[in-house]
Amino acid sequence: MITENKNESAAPTFTVRVFLRSKTNPNIRITRQKKGFRSRAEAEREEQKLHKECERKIISLESRGVLFCDLLDEWYHYEMGVKVTPGLRSQQIHDDYLSSVKLWFGDFLKRPAMDLNAFEVTRIFEEIRTKGRCHNHRKKLRTILRTIFDFGIQSGRLPRLQRNPALEVVLKKEVHKKPEILTLRG
Q1: Could you report how far apart the first and last alpha carbons of the chain are, in Å?
Q2: Predicted confidence (pLDDT) per residue in 77-115, tens digit
Q3: Residue 72: C-alpha distances to residues 63, 126, 172 (Å)
């Protein structure tokens, strides 16, 4: 879009603004703007350049795939309709699941979901274990992560994902020694 800026004391200048949105992911939007062109022809040439630049940027962003935060939001709303609305799960539990995933996987929220591979997931679960979270908490978090990635694969949001990365996570259960008081003496 080209707009003309009229000045009383000087010749008019033109402003070029280009706005494009991805056809596959409406959350991907690119806007570019430049000001100060002295002629409409110069502004039109710049508009074509900006349009091509925006198209390249959108293609680049689309090739990265869906962001993990977008996948998480879509999963949350899907589960709200499937599990919470019919009463199979409470709203509070569902919100707790969401906040737990955001807490532990917060570094990945603005990254593509494809970046969250089996190695990264295992590393995060090892970090959770070292911070003293119980086995059942880690087990529940792994189940939630599995459902998120299953949702992404089945809904077509993660078409290039071959295998759910949460399936590779092996949770180590801590072996507790019996206290001395419970040992048998002969």
Answers
A1: 91
A2: 998 888 878 878 888 888 898 999 999 988 888 788 888
A3: 19, 22, 26
